[in-house]
Amino acid sequence: MLSDMKNIMNTTDTYSKLFEHGRIGNLEIKNRVIFAPVSTNLASLTGEVSERLVRHYYRVASGGVGLIIVENVCMNRNSRND
Fold it and tell me: What is the pTM of this model?
């Protein structure tokens, strides 16, 4: 997925730095593609990490992004976004 995007964008220099290693403080990332946090509501009703949530982030990570910022958590049931 990310490799297809990389091949398309390699035709110009506009996005050439996007696929270079990056650094945020002491953290080195393999590219500068960052997955922003989204609210999936895939956690369990009690707020615990579910198998569906693990699979979601596994798929995102398998796509080749350099950094994943995980979503919010709800401390009580009334704050969920159902």
Answer: 0.69
